[in-house]
Amino acid sequence: MKDYNAIIVKNEKIAENIFSITFDVGEEAKVRAGQFGNISVGGTHLLRRPIAICKAEGALITFCYQIKGEGTQKLKTMEAGTRLNVLMPLGNGFFVEKQERNVALVGGGVGVFPLISVLREYGENKQINAYIGYRNQNAVCGVEEFEKASKFVAVTDDGSYGAKMNAVQAFEADLKKGYRPDVVLSCGPTPMLRALKELVKKENLPCYVSLEERMGCGIGACLVCVCNLTNGERARVCKDGPVFNVNDVEL
Fold it and tell me: In this structure, are residues 201 and 224 in contact, taking their beta carbons and an 8 Å threshold?
């Protein structure tokens, strides 16, 4: 983990309310799939914004973010050449074991972005099927990355792009045809993760999920992002996660 005084290389809109921002952090950064960064937007916004890392290409680090509040509204206006403090990499990320040759990615909403980093890290050596759900055709992004998967299924809630279903339903459809991954990795809205948890329990499949929580410090000190574990204990999503075994967390 390091606090970089990073330079914005580009900051562009890639879908409705979705932007991609690339920083030059000045040196090669060691980043694992599924980790995130905490970006300071400066001014009166004291808390940094936790955003998933999509790509780590040497010193160039790309994040994708959704416009939600004043902080991200300000971030989208920042131009190339602007310097911002970026604390990264944070969190434990996804890890695919050597014996896990076949991987299923199930993502929805802004949860698709951490899964891009999984595909980039493991895509050359693993069979990866990606089941990605979007709200509608205006929200579709990252297609050029997911098309590198062994199989890519894109669906939308309204059927305006791909079939009318969600990512879990698309994944389940292939399971019914005999598909059997060694591990399932997922990120997305809580209702999606809840449905996925029921499915993988029924199918007896190992599954790891990246949780999306509001965060303050990003390093486990402020306790804003605690989640409930199934053993009755609590965990900090930023430091103990954001990736957890789906059986270990309450959704």
Answer: no
215 pLDDT above the threshold of 90: no
Pinpoint the alpha helices (H) of 41-189: 70-75, 112-122, 143-146, 167-176
User: Does residue 17 carry a pLDDT above 60?
Assistant: yes
d(Cα 107, Cα 168) in Å, to the nearest integer? Answer: 8
Q: Name beta bridge partners: 63.
A: 21, 53
Place of tokens 């932007």: 19
What are the two backbone dihedrals, phi and then psi, of residue 247, each rounded to the nearest 5 degrees? -75, -10
The pair of structure tokens assigned to 162 is 């791909």
What ranges in the chain are assigned the alpha helix state H?
Answer: 70-75, 112-122, 143-146, 167-176, 190-203, 237-240
Q: Under a CB-based contact definition with an 8 Å cutoff, are residues 49 and 39 in contact?
A: yes
Q: Token pair of 239, please?
A: 């430091």
Q: Which residues pair with 13 in a beta bridge?
A: 19
> Which residues, listed in sequence order, are joined to residue 121 by a DSSP beta bridge?
none
CA 172 to chain centre: 21
**Which tokens go with 85?**
């403090």
pTM: 0.94
Q: For residue 249, give both structure tokens.
A: 């967390």
Instruction: Give the model confidence (pLDDT) of 147-188 as tens digits.
Output: 999 999 999 999 999 999 999 999 999 999 999 999 999 999
